Amino acid sequence: MAFVTFLASSLKLSATFLYGSTGEIITEKSGHLNLGIPGVMSVGAAVGCVTVFRLLKAEVASGFLLVFLPLLATLVAGGLMGVLYSFMTVTLRANQNVTGLALTTLGVGLAGHFMNGIRAESMILGRASKYYTSLFGINSTNWFVQVFLSHGVLVYLAIIIAIATQIILNRTRIGLHLRAVGENPATADAAGVNVTAYKYVATIIGSGIAALGGLFTIMDYMGGNWEYILEGFGWLSIALVIFTLWRPALAIPGSIIFGGLYIAAGFIKGISFAQIELIKLLPYVMTIVVLIFTSIVGNKKAQPPASLGLNYFREER
Amino acid sequence: MTEQKKIREPLFRLVKRTNQSAWLPWVVRIVTVLSSFVLIGILTWIAYGVNPLNVYGYMLTGAFGTKFKIMRLLRDLAILLLFALAVTPAFKMKFWNIGAEGQVLMGAFCCMVCIFYLGGKIPNGLLLLVSLIAALLGGAIWAVIPALFKAKWNTNETLFTLMMNYVAIQIILYAIKIWAPSGTGILTPSDFGHLPKIGGDNFWFSIIVALVMTALMFTYLRYTKHGYEITVVGESENTARYIGINVKKVIIRTLIVSGIICGITGFLLVAGINHTVSSTTAGGRGFTAILVSWLAKFNPIGMIFTSLLVVFLSKGMDEVMTMNGVTNSFFSQVVTGVAFLMIIGCEFFINYKIIFRSRSEKSAVAPVQEAGAAEGSDETPALADTTPPEEAPQTPAEDVAASDDAAKEE
Q1: More reliable by pLDDT, A167 or B375
Q2: A117 close contact with B: CB closer than 8 A
Q3: pTM of the shown model
Q4: Nearest-CA neighbor of B272 among B132, B103, B80, B83?
Q5: Nearest CA in chain B to A105
Q6: Do residue B16 and residue A315 have CB atoms under 8 angstroms apart?
Q7: Whether pLDDT at B159 is above 90
Q8: CATH code at A2-302
Q9: Residue B12 backbone phi and psi in degrees, to 5
Q10: Is the ipTM of this complex over 0.90?
Q11: Nearest to A277 among B158, B162, B170 (CB)
């Protein structure tokens, strides 16, 4: 029985990583390494929580509105962070790594600042949490239902987005253009693809999706309790992109593994509190191992987009 | 001629600046820093209703108000500077080491291991020496592992070093749970292994070490063969290989240097300042240091000023917040982020020139050559007649870069 709970919890937490890494994959496919994802997730979560708070204060009782409006607000907040990042790196051609780190500083700070405003009463967020945590309201003892059907809407949305992203990237013209922009922007430009537009849109959509991960983590996984844990989740999501070799479909099992490793310590009986900390090492060590493995194998299909991290200036050939 | 003009030129276009004046970058940067302070004043005004003019007053008192505050500022400045010095050689080589956090934590951890197990059993001087060596080893090993894989298999160092941060944090959490079994998760400061006080103050030792290291790093990067090799590898690995530099050796050696400085920083944090260790000993400074180093263009002397800017912003904003009854430092993180983004963004105006469509082109009657001459005259009048406006004259440096790219593609 404990194993069923473990699987269910892994699948649940996986949504955080799945949103973050799907968003980052879309951004990286356009050739931009957005290290601001932790900040984007934090801001998204904070804006979503503040929206929930305002709705609760306004006595909105509709579960649909309590989920849908914060979701929209989170998307917009994440998208705006994406606009900022792409303005810096696409238009101003600033260094991507430092811009991303500065965005993380800004985002984590902003999230704390927003949450400060409602800190005294943030407990009431828990009241809206039930609309996030269960979609069907099924309370069955059947293991299959518990593992796969007991989750909130945001878990399923994450999986749908990941599959849709996989299809769009590999099966549509838009995806082909996007990949071309990430591999070789000069060639894409010569072929008539609007490189700037693709980079902007990919970054903005990617940031919006990643921000949803923040909202999910607080409102669903944490049950409405705000904690400053999103920065670490954000970094893990970026790591997961490499772990999954830039494929959103692989990110689904990948994020479940990450989720499982992250919570594994709580499910192993008879170990000390100290040993729990050692087990929490696993997701990071696994990522390092995969990182090393993919670099040694050097498979052509497992490589990052060729122009990842390089800004494109048309007149510079 | 008239047919050509029917193609509308865009409103403005960008040209890479080729022959820069020495003063222009600094004018742009200083104007940016000043305007970021104006923006910070406005933001604080919007967020907390503080009169923007008072904000600067509070910031100054918060940073320099009392002797204690000045010492605290200098201490934080010294530590941030050391972090920045540690990441600099690797970054100059374009090795994206975002693991200074973990490297310092490992240095601090190894130092604490010595103090915890040997404290009181051996004389203080010997204890300090042993823990210094342990800290250096800890930092260096943590830095050299990603470097080895980068050199051998070109493993992505950004994520490798990032993951190593978390491994270090978990190791420290594990050790603290063993050392402090009370369940509080906090290790009480040790009475052993304290660095000597200079001038009756705890922090001078760290500040002096930071200054000495700054001078050493400046010399190392500018006047030694190692520093030259780092610069060449950073500019172009192919060039480095061509002139006979062993790139792998340079990567590994440079990361050992980085790791050793991180070890020193960790040692100072434990033996000189905190006398204990926690998962937040490094406190995110490994990331801030990258920005500090980058903003100073990897110049160690410049980093004194950029880290002063960062520490001043955070201490100053903390004071503003305290005046408003806010006890956390999130808003100071916000303003730091805003200032960073503005300064990063301003590089654009240093590297590129925006050329607006001239009036004569808009009316679409003036001949092409006149427009070309008007724009060309900004840079090289001699070339104006022959060079079409789209192509900026190439410098030899660009030629090298272009041929380098070509070599990469083969």
Answers
A1: A167
A2: no
A3: 0.84
A4: B132
A5: B337
A6: yes
A7: no
A8: 1.10.3470
A9: -150, 160
A10: no
A11: B170
